[in-house]
Amino acid sequence: MSTLTIGELSERSGVPTSALRFYESKGLLSSTRSEGNQRRYRRDELRRVAFILAAQRVGLGLSEISTALATLPGGRTPTQKDWERLAKGWRPMLEARIRSLEELRDRLNSCIGCGCLSLTTCALQNPDDEAAAQGEGPRYLLGDLPAAQPKPGSAGKRRRDARKSSSRG
Fold first, then answer.
1. Which of 40, 50, 71, 92 could form a disulfide with 3 if both were Cys (CB 3.0 to 4.6 A apart)?
2. What is the pLDDT of residues 82-107, one digit of tens each?
3. What would the DSSP string read from start to end of the chain?
4. Beta strand 32-33 with 39-42: parallel, antiparallel or unpaired?
């Protein structure tokens, strides 16, 4: 079987040589060395690169891809059956990501509970940064619900009430 130089593999796969070296350093690809110490890749490494790109495109990280490739006997290149088996295992995770993206899409026009208080709606959806009590990050985006939706105008009343009680103490 003929081999490819890193430049040939890069040209054929569309992946920069730096990324190929990185994939190799992470154990996703393998090469041999020529007498001049140049990398040489078997042609079937093209399929591994395609596998990596396809897996990344569906949202998998390199650690997940590495785990998947490690399930192949003898480090061989994935076959159609391998891809089907792995894709079936990824399906629940992909469906969860799709649901999360749909929720994000549907909530883009409203507060995501970041605590910034800079949007007009933050005063209504997250008065006094109440989302902070639920943890770090954009709590509503992560699926937490606001404690209670305040009535219009009640955020200002709550702040006045809080000021009154703090001035008494």
1. 40
2. 888 888 988 998 899 888 888 777 76
3. --EE-HHHHHHHHT--HHHHHHHHHTTSS--EE-TTS-EEEETTHHHHHHHHHHHHHTT--HHHHHHHHHTSGGGPPP-HHHHHHHHHHHHHHHHHHHHHHHHHHHHTTS----S---STTHHHHSGGGGGGGG-SS-TTTTTPPPS--PPTTHHHHHHHHHHHHHHH-
4. antiparallel
